[in-house]
Amino acid sequence: MFKGNAIIGQSGGPTSVINASLAGVIDAALQSREIDRVFGMRFGIEGVLQDFLFDLSAESRETLDRLKTTPSSALGSTRLKLKDEHFEPILAQLKRYNIRYFFMIGGNDTMDTIHRVVEYAKASGYEMIGVGVSKTVDNDLFGTDHTPGYPSAARYVALSILQGGLLARDMQRVDQYSIFQTVGRSAGWLPGAAACAKRHPADPPHIILMPEIHFEKEKFLGAVERAQKEYGFCSIVCGEGISYADGTPVSASQTVDKFGNVEFGAMGGTSAAMMLHKMIQDQFGWRGEFQVTESLQMCAADRAVTLDVEEAYGCGKEAVRLALEGVEGKMVTITRVNGKGEPYRSGFGTIELGKVANAERPVPREFISDDGLFVTDAFLEYARPLLGELPVYASLTVKKATC
Questions:
Q1: Cα angle, residue 331 at apex, residues 330 and 333 outer, rounded to 5°
Q2: 271, 180 in Cβ contact below 8 A?
Q3: Strands (E), 302-386
Q4: In terms of CATH architecture, what is 4-138+303-357?
Q5: The domain 150-301+362-387 belongs to what CATH superfamily?
Q6: Please, which residues bridge with residue 288 across strands?
Q7: In Å, how far are 8, 12, 140, 214, 351 from 359, measured between CA atoms?
Q8: DSSP state, 379?
Q9: Which residues are the active-site residues?
Q10: Which of 44, 58, 372 is nearest to 216 (CA)?
Q11: pLDDT per residue over 151-208, tens digit each?
Q12: What's the CA gap between 182 and 195, in Å, rounded?
C-alpha cells in the first residue's frame, strides 16, 4: 500500500450515531502506519471544493472520545449534487493534500459521490482508495441487514408511541385519535418499528401506514372507525412518504430537493399526518391530534441504542481496515450472523458502491400484514433485537368500585 493522508466526510441527514462512525474512522486511521494525517470535510464535499478542512489529527483524545456519543453531524453535512464541473477542482484539492484514502458516511447519494469521485481520480491517473460507511435512519440502503442509525431512530419511534400511547388512551374522551409521522421517503422501516411498543391488541399503534403500500382512503377510514369503536380511540403511525396508487403523495407536496426527491412537509406542501388528520375530522367530526417530529428522530442521543453506537463505531474502523488492505469501491455493511432463535449477533461485510447508489431496500412484503395496515411477526423478529428492551409501565386494573 502507499502512504498518504485520509479524508472523511458526512453527508445527508444525520443519525444519533453518525459521529460514532466518524470516531471509528479517525481512531483506526490514526493508529495506522500508512496514514499520516486525517482531514475532515466541512459540510461534506463542499468542504473540499471550498478548501475548508478540519485537521482531525490535531484533536484531543478527550474530544475524540466524546465524539462517539455526540449527536448530529460533527463535520457538518451537505446535499450538494455533484456536477461534471466539480470533479476537476475536487481532484486538485485531493492532490494538494495528498489524499490517498477517501471515506464518506451517508446513504445512497453519498455512496454515489464516493463512487464518482474515485472513478474520476482513477481515470485521471491518481491512485486513491474510496470506502463508504453506511448511514441512514430510513434503513433503506441496499445490501445491509440494517444501517447504523436505524436502531436508535426506531427506538425513538417505539418509545414515542409507547409513551404517547398512554396519553392517547387516557385522553380518549377528549381526542378520539392521534397520528404520529416518521421520516422515511420511500421505506416503512421506521413506522413499522412503532409496533415494537405494542404488547396487547388495545395498545397503540392500531394502524401503521407504510410507503410500500398504496394508500386507500376508504379502507383507512374504515380501519380508523373500527379501532375507535373497539378501543375508544385510534392510534395511527404513518411514514412521511405514503402515497396513492397513482404515485401522488398523501402530503400533496410539489417541492423537490436537488436530487429530485419530494420534500415532505416543505413550504408549498403539507405533511401526510396533517392530511390524515383532516380526513378523519371531515369524515367523523372527531377531535384529534398529530405529531410530526421531523429531524428529532435523527439526533436524539438520549434514546440512542448502545448496540447502534458500537456497530456504527465498528463500521468506521472496518472501513479503514478494508482501505489499508487495498479494498476500494465498497460500502461497509452489517450482517446478522446469529441463527434463528439465538441471541442477536452481527458482523461486517461489503457491497459495491455502485449497487448501493442505484438501489433501495423497501420493507419486504412478508413483513407487512395482508391488509397493508400493520406489520407481521416476521418484522418484529427482525426489529426487536435492534431496539433493546422497552420500559414496562403500570396499567390500573379496571374494576368499577362498589359501595
A1: 130
A2: no
A3: 330-336, 346-352
A4: 3-Layer(aba) Sandwich (3.40)
A5: Phosphofructokinase domain (3.40.50.460)
A6: 177
A7: 23, 17, 9, 20, 12
A8: H
A9: 138
A10: 372
A11: 999 999 999 999 999 999 999 999 999 999 999 889 999 999 999 999 999 999 999 9
A12: 13
Residues 372/213, Cβ–Cβ less than 8 Å: yes
Chain centroid offset of residue 265 CA: 18
Q: Let me know if the fold of 4-138+303-357 is the same as that of 150-301+362-387.
A: yes
Starting at the earlier edge strand, list the strands of the sheet with 35-41. Answer: 53-55, 35-41, 4-10, 99-106, 129-134, 330-336, 346-352
Give 235-282 as a DSSP string: EEEEETT-B-TTS-BTT----B-TTS-B-TT-TTS--HHHHHHHHHHH
- Residue showing cell 484531543: 60
* Whether 13 contacts 295, CB under 8 Å: yes
Our CA dihedral for 287, 293, 297, 300, rounded to 10 degrees, sits at -110
Return the H-helix or E-strand segment holding 6: strand 4-10
pLDDT, tens digit (0-9, with 9 covering 90-100), for 208-219: 999 999 999 999
Q: In 27-127, at which residue ranges do the beta strands (DSSP E only) sit?
A: 35-41, 53-55, 99-106
Which pLDDT score, from 0 to 100, does residue 258 have? 60
* Residue 267, pLDDT score: 42
Give the DSSP per-residue string, 165-218.
HHHHHHTTTT-SEEEEEE--SS--HHHHHGGGG--STTSSPSEEE-TTS---HH
Distance (Å, rounded) from C-alpha 403 to C-alpha 394? Answer: 26
> Is the sign of the CA dihedral 84, 88, 93, 99 positive or negative?
positive
- Domain residue extents for the chain: 4-138+303-357, 150-301+362-387
Q: How far apart are CA 309 and CA 24, in angstroms?
A: 10
Helix pair 306-324, 18-31: axis angle to 10 deg: 40
Assigned C-alpha cell, 15: 443519525
The pTM for the full model equals: 0.93
Element (H, E) at 131: strand 129-134
The 3-state DSSP class for residue 335 equals strand
Residues 174, 286 contacting (CB under 8 angstroms): no
DSSP 31-53: H-SSEEEEEEETTTHHHHHTT-E
